[in-house]
Amino acid sequence: MKAFVFPGQGAQFVGMGKDLYDNYPIAKEMFEKANEILGFRITDLMFEGTEDDLKQTKVTQPAIFLHSVILAKTIEDFNPEMVAGHSLGEFSALVANGALSFEDGLKLVSQRAMAMQKACENEPSTMAAIIGLEDKVVEEICEGIEDVVVPANYNCPGQLVISGSMKGIEVACEKLKEAGAKRALPLKVGGAFHSPLMEPARVELAEAINNTNFNTPICPVYQNVDAKPYTDATQIKENLIKQLTSPVKWTYIMQNMIADGMASYTEVGPGNVLQGLLKKVDRQIPTQSA
């Protein structure tokens, strides 16, 4: 079965999408439509902005979404049998598999980004990548810390990102190094994504999602909250709302896709991070960039 997967925040780069804009009329049309919907020329920031411009959550998320979804539109044989997206990428996956329209997907991503940025400004928080420990060890250490700190991204075996308050992350990194982590690296991110500190953003996004029309998708989407495949529009909505305060279970998504017959794996969007993560799970599955 053909799997198409979509990256999340962190995959952005200056110049992303310009080749699509210049070479495909449908891409140019969609990018200009996005500028109109967003109320500013995001294409200027994507094509000619600075790295700092692209690091703003309110810019990063719609930029990656646009690159991914528009790239999928230019693929001649785009016929996914299963899709998934890492965090933000789940919205790209839902547009690509027909569950959401391009316009509604972009509006939700923009609202999500603004709500998350606002939540980060209200309470300083951060994330850290933990390399070289079993998930269970990281989970147990996080549970024993008084400040907010939780597993946020189960990226691949031996790589788990934690999320929480500034103090919680500092203490957790110290304890995880003592427990044998090869590395405990604070990340340059706007805040504690996929943690309880995103609750204000979850509440705000929930209203927008509930007021948006979702269709039955053309193929299952493996969702972040529990790594299981879904085609029911109501359940997809519920899982999408939970996603902001729940961990991204990417390791388990890949394992479930493989168990369900995934034969090829195409990453659609900027970068190739997701291909690297799959190789840590199963090196036999052929991977490619769109």
Short description:
With 290 residues, the chain is an alpha/beta fold.
The overall average pLDDT, rounded, is 95
Number of domains: 2
Rg, Å, rounded: 18 Å
- How many helices? 13
Q: What is the CATH topology of the largest domain? A: Malonyl-Coenzyme A Acyl Carrier Protein, domain 2
Sheet-strand content, in percent, reads 15-25%
Please identify which CATH superfamily of the largest domain we are dealing with. Malonyl-Coenzyme A Acyl Carrier Protein, domain 2
Q: What do you see in this structure?
A:
- By secondary structure, this protein is of the alpha/beta class.
- It folds into 2 domains: 2-121 and 196-289, 3-Layer(aba) Sandwich (Malonyl-Coenzyme A Acyl Carrier Protein, domain 2); 125-186, Alpha-Beta Plaits.
- Helices cover 49% and strands 16% of the residues.
- The protein has 13 helices and 10 strands.
- It has a 6-stranded mixed β-sheet, sandwiched between helices. Strands 4-5-3-6 form a 4-stranded antiparallel β-sheet.
- Helix 2 crosses helix 7 (102-122).
- The mean pLDDT is 95.
Tell me the layout of helices and strands.
Blueprint: E1 2-6, H1 18-23, H2 25-38, H3 42-48, H4 51-55, H5 57-73, E2 82-85, H6 89-96, H7 102-122, E3 125-131, H8 135-143, E4 149-156, E5 159-165, H9 166-178, E6 183-186, H10 199-210, E7 221-222, E8 229-230, H11 233-242, H12 250-259, E9 264-267, H13 273-281, E10 287-289
Parallel strand pairs: 1-2, 1-9, 2-7, 9-10
Antiparallel strand pairs: 3-5, 3-6, 4-5, 7-8
Helix pairs in contact: 2-5, 2-7, 5-6, 5-7, 6-7, 7-10, 10-11
